[in-house]
Amino acid sequence: MKIKIQSVFVLILLSVLSVFLFRNYFFKGQVPFPSNLLVAYHSPWADYEWEGYPNGPPNKPIGFDNLKLFYPFRKFTTEQLAQGHIPLWNPYVFSGNIHLATYQSAVLYPLNVLYFVLPQIDAWSLLIIAQSIIAGIFTYLFLKKLSLSFKSSLFGAVLFAYSGWMTVWSQESLVIEHTALWLPMILYSIERLFSKYSYANWLLLVLGLSLSILAGFLQMSIYSFTIAGLWILYRWKNKDRRQLKQLYPFIFGLLVAILLVGIHLVPAIEAFFGSPRGQVDAKFLFDDYLAKPWHLLTFLIPDFWGNPGAYNYFGKGFYHESVIYFGIPGFMLALYALFSESVSLKINKMAFFKWVGITALLLGFSPVGWLLYYSRLPILSVIMPSRIFIIAVFSLSVLSAYGMEKFLSEKWNKKVWLGIIMVFASIFAISWGVIGLAKMANISDYVYKWYFPYLKAINDPFGNFATVSYRNTILSSLLFGVTVIGIFMGGIKKYSISKLSYYVLIVISLVSSFYFANKYLYFSERKFVFPQVPVLTKLQEIAGLNRVWGYGNGYIEKNMLMYYGLYSPEGYDALFPQEYGELLFSQEVQGSITKQILRTDANIRQASEHEAVLGNPYRTKLLSLLGVKYILEAKEGEGKDWNTTEERFPAESFKLEWEDDKYRIYQNLDSLPRSFLVNDYVVLKDKQEIADTLFSETFDLSKTVIVEEELSFDRSQNCAVGTSKITSYTPNRVEIETDSRCPAILFLSDNYYPGWNAYIDEEKTKIYRSDYSFRAVTVPEGIHKVQFKYEPLSFKLGILLTSLGFISLLVIIRR
User: Fold this and answer.
1) Cβ–Cβ under 8 Å, residues 454 and 294
2) H or E, element range at 743
3) 281 CB neighbour count, 10 Å cutoff
4) For residue 783, what are the β-bridge partners?
5) Pairing of strands 704-707, 680-683
6) Which residues span the membrane (predicted)?
7) pLDDT by residue (tens digit) across 587-636?
8) d(CA 133, CA 154)
9) What's the rounded Cα separation, in Å, for the pair 530 and 120?
10) pTM to 2 decimal places
11) For residue 723, how far is the Cα from the chain centroid?
């Protein structure tokens, strides 16, 4: 009973702490979503005036992926599911792309049921707030199951739940953190199974593993499954009487979990190998995001190189990708656990997290992390290497709990504590020395280059960066000083003072974590969550199925148009068709085809204001081929005096459709319809030859298509080209009516992809890859109904595996 009461207390405490941390949501009506950034920074919203904010609302340059990826995708997913459709395909981005199979769309994640009972922004907010609560309570339960005391378990749980890693990723990517937070639950279920086999404990393991995959970020799932597998083997190896059959529940649990999520996993595997992720070299990621040795300083001074939440970050790469901070008290106690001698069973278990934590930390740093890149392991060699810090932070939080256990229950170890304090004091002294050197004008370039690579950044002419480092080092130094006092209190023999040391250390941890969080967390006004502006309202009225693009200062970030039901040729996502990416990237390399393209983006080459829309011949061809009928232009902004409007939008190719005081919408007169009929084709198989032909000035896109194999099509008949009309267009199904006096080829400027099937008058026909990345079918003369249906075999196989998973679950439970 006492254990249950303590667990309820921890759950309530974590909830209260999270409510306090997100008090702006509960008491001020603000939302943890970067909508202020949207209207202050992104076109077209930033070009309109907002009442009360003549210069735009206050914002932080954080959460860009939530704006251009996760939030618009969630709206599309929820709408499709509410209509009774499984969102397999997303027609709004990339000229059509997989949706469920992108993995991080998290279509089937159970916690997303909140989106069906609450407004999207409130469901989103509660899922963010719930992250620390879920991670914290299961970390506490796991530590308690390791036989740690209530105080030590609570300490470790709080450290992890409100660590810097958990804080920054709660703002950057909902799916990454929701995938990672199930690791404590998985480990807790494993520990329960080793203590006592029961169906409830086994189901908890299956649930944790399944949720980790369904949450939507494969990299974190791989980490969780790896740590879970290693923990199972480690615990089994250290059992007094180990038998192979003791592993059976864990093996079956893993297999059943994978079967259950087959509907999510199988399409994603297919998509991965057909995307740039499986083919583009990722060396640049390891160059940019493997941490350097001096990054260890951020264990103590997390913002030595500034913080984007305060608009003063001047470090390398994205700040959130390399956060390892979880509080000075926690770090010191983790080291105390490592360097104190003990042979108890508790410490035997602790050794696992010691080696896992050290290994994860090393793999996130150069040069050790390069082992992953050169291993050429699928997935692991092409992903962001620094994200493995989640394993390091969790392991160190567990070690901190062990350190607290030793601190509270054993004799104060003067030798170890003085050694740790001296090392930390030396690090702070060196940091102060670096800041002092940064202000010295006569320091040599040699020292800059070889000893203090960031020193030049700190030493700017106005001293701004040095001030940032100076201010943040003062705060961390004070926290270190108070932590040392708390530690020395533990060594005082008087019981009341010694007991008080625990509360000093946990309060310092919470204060430092909450200070860090308050600096980074963003809160915005609800009215700025993708608001309507006149230019978007007009596009919704006139665009229909035609695609839209923004020119120059009026460029609209990828995926954002999707929120308004507008179609775009561009896209930003983890997985998309390799061929489409190659075609669009060819604009950047004068029409050349290469597999080394952008991993996450497909762009129409952006045009600056000094360049005419038709200034790039490759872009001109693609705007026509992709059916980009409407192009936006901002009336104001830098570079507007470089060219006249007529030079940017010549009258022979563009017609002014609409304007207000901020924007113009032009109709692209050379844009091809989304579907049309042609009577001629050429067969080309070489990718470069296809691209060269497409971009040739003499090749008429409206009269001839390029296919990669011969068609059973008689093109000898000389008759007028017929007509095609899209009569129904939904994400997973397109219906087109054709009318032609002779056989013709129907072209649809949506991406060709495995799983799309075509039917003419309900009879199946072959789809040909056309014009490098699109779809074409041959149609007979007369009036016919052509249907394109997305019926991927990978999804059907996934359904089969999921069904087998549920059957296996029932069989095992009923044994």
Assistant:
1) yes
2) none
3) 12
4) 739
5) parallel
6) 7-26, 123-143, 150-168, 202-234, 246-266, 322-339, 351-373, 379-404, 416-438, 469-488, 500-517, 793-813
7) 999 999 999 999 999 999 988 777 889 989 999 999 999 999 999 999 98
8) 12
9) 12
10) 0.93
11) 43
